[in-house]
Amino acid sequence: MYSTRLLLTPAMVLIVILAIVLPPEAARAQDKDDSAVLSEIIVTARKREENLQNVPASISAFTASTIAEYGVNDISQLSDFAPNFSYEKFGGRMGAEGDVARPVIRGQSNIIGEGNAAFFVDGIPYSESILSFPIQAIERVEVVKGPQAALFGRSTFSGAINLVTKRGTNDFQNTVSLRAAQHNDYEVNLTSSGPLSDDKVFYFIHGRYYDYGGEYKNELDGTDVGQEQSFGLNTAIELIPDENLRINIAAGYNKDDDGLPATRVQDRFANNCFLDQARQYYCGAVTEFESVVLAKDRLLGEEGIRRDVSRVSLAVNWDIGASGFHLTSNMGHNQSDYTFGIDQTNLGDPINFAGGSFVRVEESERDESSFELRLDSPQNENFRYLIGTYYYERDRERFRRRPGTNVLIADFGKETVENFAVFGAIEFEMGDAWTARAEMRRQSDKIGLIPASGPQLEATFDSNLPRVTLDYQMTENMMLYGVVALGNKPGVFNANPALPEFARFADEEEAWNYEIGAKWNSTDGRMQLNGAVFYIDWTNQQLSDSISVAGTPISFVSNAGETEVWGAEVDGRMLLADNWDLYGSYGYNNAEFASNCDPVQGRELTGIDCVSPNGVDGGDVSGNQTPNSPANQFSLGTSYTHALSGNMDLVLRADYSYRSKVYAQVHNLAYADERQLLNLRAGFDTEKWRINLYVDNALDDLTPSTVTRFADLANLNIGPNVNPDQDNVPGTTSVERGFLVPLATGRRVGISATFEF
């Protein structure tokens, strides 16, 4: 693999140069002169339908056709093609206590707790894991960068990712899609849409079955791990009683039944720095493992993930007569039940040390509801405005138990969230070229914890969240814009009842975002180029902390300090010829701690305010990069179509993406190394069917997607009187540092086919 990377170095330099002039989305359309032009992309990032090129914001948008062309199977894969957006699939589709897959936009990362960017489905918050949401039910994905609280609400601290689902039209369309690949990877999608009554009632229905056998072996029993299985059903009905009223009703159900995730702890014997101190540490790139060590048999058939997620939404859009005013109501409810049986040591949970106490089952139930009502003024006036109100609530219960029993290890109680907001925007066109827009959201966010025992905990955060945009239509084909916006993330209760009082709560954090960007289209419609530079002033950052309670390390969220982020991103697409398109993107973010130290385990007990990874004075991490955040990302891809006999086309496609290393923690010592992915596709297309042969990860790059600071619970440092071989740091601590590593998905060859009728 190392030699392959050396050979690719000249190509990488060329890709960077090309990316500057070239993202995600290349499709062909025909104008009146029958010459190919780039297709228009419509987005709803500002709560109204607009051409992507007319929106003064940095947005990576992917249509259904683009997603199909890329061969994307879940949302995490889209982050390979969106600059300064990272969403890593951590060894499987974990959630609840095990959910470490969090979207990162422009370096604003976190490790535990609620994510800094939020997912939405048709504008409805979706807090459950999005990784198994069916891609083929999606019409468009919009990654909107920068704080979006003014219009999208809570949890959009660094941005919002909105999934827009498909709807029916006046044309009947039935589709069958099949996919088969190595490692028993199979998927079937059935889709049907059309009119129930022409121009009045439309339907959409989609069913999916997916099965993946896993590709890594468990050393303890020789079985495969990393299996995934899903069944899903999504439906939508659109009613248009008259030309002024449109009603959308959508519902979905998804069931996951996954095996143990392919994860492994790099044990404490690999540690190579701070060896004379408590906990020790590891410095350098973590190991690329070829197998896992998991105590599957002692999970008594409860290993892996069982998840049921259902959702329902109702959206009403009403044009109020001839007044030009538009009223929108959007409400939805999501419910999920989740069980996750895991060997928490990720190293076989040996009985001879801790009595085999780390095999456990995590259970979670979550309900969330939201309602939004919004009034828009006529859009054909120079002065426009909108006003709205919003309500959101979420309840989540969690507990941990022994496999095969109802014996509780921990009851985390019920976590509650209640959010009420009013918001608005005014927009004014100043002549033919300048447009100014100001948005404001006033919200009250109340979070609570109802513990299994003890008093109820509750806190309320009131905030004003402004966003100001100024755009200038420099020419017919060039727009410049500037944005100033404030984002915030409410405080958090740490639910683990074993935590001491000082570790039960973290304060809210804030970030001011400053952005200047440009959007350009060529006169002939064959090329687009968008770019932005930004600066983020981030204060009171929430990061993971750790404390040892009765010899067991417990992670929690605390406030770490101040961070500054500056960077740039560019994406573009072009037609080299009518049958040959090219895209590219590049993102850079310099996300560094400006004033920060490692939140200390036992801070209140030691009196030390700033510590190293092992609890020693002098751990100032100012100047270090935020964890799980790559400084560089770029991608380049091309698609070539050659007409064959009849209506058949030969289509060749290649997509390359690069992500620089990501650190496990604020110390910037242990990291997952840089990663390169090359996907190749070749197929035949007609109007009614398509067949593709594909190779994903053709370079077979097995670099872990990320890494998490963990503990080696399988090799306890329990003293020379018990086991001298284990006691490599006498008299320090019983639990020393390890690092949790997801095993990467390797090269995979497959075939896919789609039939329309």
Q: Please report the first level of CATH classification, the CATH class.
A: Mainly Beta
List the domain count as a whole number: 1
Rg over alpha carbons = 26 Å
CATH architecture: Beta Barrel
What does this structure look like?
The chain is mainly beta and 757 residues long. It has a single domain (2-756), classed as Maltoporin, Chain A, CATH 2.40.170. The chain is 6% helix and 54% strand. The chain has 6 helices and 46 strands. The protein has a 22-stranded antiparallel barrel. Strand 24 (359-376) and strand 25 form a beta hairpin. The longest helix has 19 residues, at 2-20. The model is unreliable at 1-33, 95-100, 599-609 and 614-618 (pLDDT under 50).
What does this entry show, briefly?
With 757 residues, the protein is mainly beta.
Write the layout of secondary structure elements.
Blueprint: H1 2-20, E1 28-30, E2 36-38, E3 42-43, E4 50-51, E5 59-63, H2 64-70, H3 75-78, E6 85-86, E7 104-105, E8 117-121, E9 124-125, E10 138-145, H4 149-152, E11 159-165, E12 173-181, E13 185-197, E14 201-212, E15 216-218, E16 224-225, E17 228-242, E18 245-258, E19 263-266, E20 284-285, E21 291-292, E22 304-319, E23 326-343, H5 351-354, E24 359-376, E25 383-401, E26 408-430, E27 434-450, E28 457-475, E29 478-489, E30 492-493, E31 505-506, E32 509-521, E33 527-539, E34 542-549, E35 552-559, E36 561-577, E37 580-596, H6 603-606, E38 632-643, E39 649-659, E40 662-663, E41 670-672, E42 675-685, E43 689-696, E44 708-712, E45 736-742, E46 748-756
Parallel strand pairs: 8-11, 15-21, 20-41
Antiparallel strand pairs: 1-2, 3-4, 5-10, 6-7, 8-9, 10-11, 12-13, 12-46, 13-14, 14-17, 15-16, 17-18, 18-22, 19-45, 22-23, 23-24, 24-25, 25-26, 26-27, 27-28, 28-29, 29-32, 30-31, 32-33, 33-36, 34-35, 36-37, 37-38, 38-39, 39-42, 40-41, 42-43, 43-46, 44-45
